Known about the structure:
The protein is mostly helical. The protein has nine helices and six strands; from the N terminus they run H-E-H-H-H-E-H-E-H-E-E-H-H-E-H. A hairpin with a 6-residue loop joins strand 4 and strand 5.
Amino acid sequence: MGPPGAGKGTQSERIAETYGIEHVTTGDALRANKEMDISHLDGEHDTPGAYMDAGDLVPDAVVDEIVERALDSADGFVLDGYPRNPDQAVALEGMTDLDVVLVLEVSRETLINRLTGRRLDPETGESYHVEFDMPDDEAVRDRLVQREDDSREAVENRLDVFERETAPVIDRYRDHEGYVEVDGERPPDEVWAAIDSAVASKVEGS
């Protein structure tokens, strides 16, 4: 867990690869189950895809059911971006027991710098960063663009939403025996070393 820009996706992929488990993200799970019949939930739409196509927020009940399906078919998993709010956390408790709850700690200003500095190559889809990772090719540099959701205003809003909706979930897990805080401001390999050590120790001790 952690705010936007903390590195959850990168580190979750490494966990999944190292431990041979499923990397479960809400977005991927929704896309993989767009046509799933959810008419029994009596929502506005009968499939997750209908919500997505309409640009509507997918209700928690739909997300919960899709995540549960993903977990049921997984032989071990790392959750990335779920639960996002206290209601989802309650639903998750009814699905499974967690071995480890990893929280990446990164300051707000660092997050803003990371996210607003991202640039996208519209031709290749490759991502870069103005401070840490710019392409050598000048032609590529000249065509890089900033995504709308990486503007300062959009980033500030995303962080505010995280503080309002997801930070209370982290507080909920502080007493969990597998709870671990990791300094996410360090280089990615150092963050990974801390995560790998924490996961190994918690799992071996369980």
